[in-house]
Amino acid sequence: MGFKNRLKEYRKKCGMTQKELAATSKVNRTTIAGLESGAIDVTTTDTLLKLSKALQAPVTSVFFTD
């Protein structure tokens, strides 16, 4: 079972590219791409926090979906 998230949805809602989100969050763009595509299904809490902070959204809204 893959790691389901709404990262791409939130990123697009903020009008950001993966490159812009990477620069803002200090998370590698390939990590962001992997999370969005489902290729990466395990990551650190630090990564989740950095991305959600850059998107100005709660971690649970972005990463923990039903």
Could you describe the 3D structure shown?
The protein is mainly alpha-helical and 66 residues long. It has a single domain, classed as Orthogonal Bundle (434 Repressor (Amino-terminal Domain)), CATH 1.10.260. The protein is 59% helix and 0% strand. The protein is built from 5 helices and no strands. The protein has helices at residues 7-13, 18-25, 29-37, 45-54, 59-63. Helix 2 crosses helix 4 (45-54). The longest helix has 10 residues, at 45-54. The chain is globular and about 25 Å long. The model has no long low-confidence stretch (mean pLDDT 93).
Describe what is shown at a glance.
With 66 residues, this protein is mainly alpha-helical. The chain contains 5 helices and no strands.
Question: How are the SSEs ordered, and which strands pair?
Answer:
Layout: H1 7-13, H2 18-25, H3 29-37, H4 45-54, H5 59-63
Helix pairs in contact: 2-4
What would you call the shape? Answer: globular
- For the secondary structure, the number of strands is 0
Main sheet attributes: strand count, strand direction, barrel closure: none
- What percentage of residues falls in helices of 4 or more residues? 55-70%
How many structural domains does the protein architecture include? 1
Quickly count the helices. 5
From the 3D structure, determine the CATH topology: 434 Repressor (Amino-terminal Domain)
**Order of SSEs, N→C?**
HHHHH
Mean pLDDT: 93
Distance between the termini: 12 Å
Overall SS class: mainly alpha
Strand content: under 5%
Rounded to an integer in angstroms, the radius of gyration calculated over CA atoms is: 10 Å
User: What is the CATH top level name?
Assistant: Mainly Alpha
**Which stretches are poorly predicted, pLDDT < 50 over at least 5 residues?**
none
The name of the CATH architecture is: Orthogonal Bundle
